UniProtKB/TrEMBL annotation:
Pfam families per the UniProt record, alphabetical: OsmC (PF02566)
Cross-referenced Gene3D superfamilies: 2.20.25.10, 3.30.300.20
Family according to the record: Belongs to the OsmC/Ohr family.
Name of the molecule in the record: Organic hydroperoxide resistance protein
Species annotation: Pontibacter aquaedesilientis
Source domain of life: Bacteria
Amino acid sequence: MEKVYTAEVTATGGRRGHVMSSDGVIDMPLSLPEGLGGEKGKSNPEQLFAAGYAACFQSALLLVAGRQHIRLNPESTVKAHVDLLKSEDGKYALGVKLEVHLQGLDKEKADELVNEAHEVCPYSIGTRGNINVELEVV
């Protein structure tokens, strides 16, 4: 495959540290999630992953809809729920639910577009077989 873009972000200090992108657009402190003893007002790796996945999946939806000459309602959304999971033996993993709202489309067509987007979205392709991803069309 041809490389078309490389994002560079440097993390220091882990979950209670700091992240900064090479272009300075991302420059923020991190914390554990507030419910796990983290500080209010700081992001965490799960939020950043959710933001990237939601945006990427929305773009995949726009792509597959465009291929079918369907114009998505601008109010359509993708909300990514990213769960930090812990097994009984103390290992951590992620789980994802993508909640997709496609206003103005019947359920069958919305399901079709979401399933097709899941086949072309780079995040979906990259997580397939590694992270359980649930698709919910609302």
